[in-house]
Amino acid sequence: NKTRFEVHVSKDTFKFNAAHFVAYPGFRERLHGHNYRVSVRLLGSRKIGPDGYVIDYGCVKNVTKRVCKELNEHFLCPTLSNVLEITTCTMESRESISIKCEDGSIFVFPKTDVAMIPIVHATTEELAIYLWGRILHGLDAQYLLKRGIHTMEVKCAEAIGQDATFRLEIPTDLEGHSFDVSQYIMNGNVVPMPCPSNPDTKQAAPSDCTSRNQCCRNKGDCSKSELSVKLQKLADMINNGKLPKEKGTKVTAADLEDLIS
User: How far apart are CA 131 and CA 168, in angstroms?
Assistant: First the structure.
């Protein structure tokens, strides 16, 4: 018998507005924000509880709203980042969080405006993992298991059509379970997406360069790559003595442009 019960809870109140940027070696987004949405799915057994529920929707609503409220109107600070120097400082008798980035940029936020989250990158994927852990804690893993609920799924969306889902079986022994976000991240260097080779590919406007679903994270990356290729072509011609000019004749910018066009 493959019959299984499950419930899915998604409400307008499962939301939080927050600022963030994604940073990893060699890359940092600009500071920006999203109106995040969250939903929860719980997978149960072949039978529902004696009260007729897989779980009372009210329980899921109360916990998820509370978790979202903790993040609402905050900067999402990934405390496990390997490229951000995060320190607490006191300015005019008020505590602040200082964040120094790999590129030298420094952000300072009032401590009360920052959500210190044990994640490596402030992506929807890692937020989904974090939310999963917080919601599980609020619902009580042992209570869920007693009701026959074996798996929980949390979806985090940063915009319509852009969401990440984290799904995991509920551990039977939370004390012996290390819920470390980094265990779900691959080791190794980041492999950048290649620039579009199709001339018809629409490039995002510079103001949209913070969007994570661009092929190139920054439009300038593509322009820089194309320029490098042209300059190398020109350097090869100069080194090989192939400039089509007679000795003593000045080379103009137009001549060089013709060579690399």
Answer: 12
The Cα 59–Cα 140 span in angstroms is 10
Q: What are the contacts of 156-160 at 24+ separation with CB within 8 A?
A: 156/36, 156/37, 156/38, 156/124, 156/127, 156/128, 156/131, 157/36, 157/37, 157/38, 157/124, 158/34, 158/35, 158/36, 158/124, 159/34, 159/35
Q: CA distances (Å), 243 to each of 63, 65, 111, 117, in order?
A: 72, 69, 61, 58
Residue 92 in 3-state DSSP? coil
Q: Which two tokens stand for residue 101?
A: 């980035």
pLDDT, position 259: 64
Task: Kindly state the tokens that stand for 43.
Answer: 């997978």
Residue corresponding to tokens 């600070």? 77
* Predicted pLDDT of residue 215: 44
CA separation for the pair 154, 167 (Å, rounded): 6
pLDDT of res. 217: 43
Q: What is the C-alpha separation between 191 and 232, in angstroms, rounded? A: 24
Burial class (CB in 10 A: 0-12, 13-18, 19+), 259: middle
Q: Which amino acid is at 63?
A: V
Radius of gyration of the chain (CA): 26
Residue stretches of the chain with pLDDT short of 70: 1-3, 174-178, 192-230, 241-249, 254-261
Model pTM greater than 0.85?
no
130 φ, ψ to 5°? -60, -45
166 contact partners, CB below 8 Å, separation of at least 6? 125, 128, 129, 131, 132, 153, 154, 156
Contact 256, 227 (CB under 8 A): no
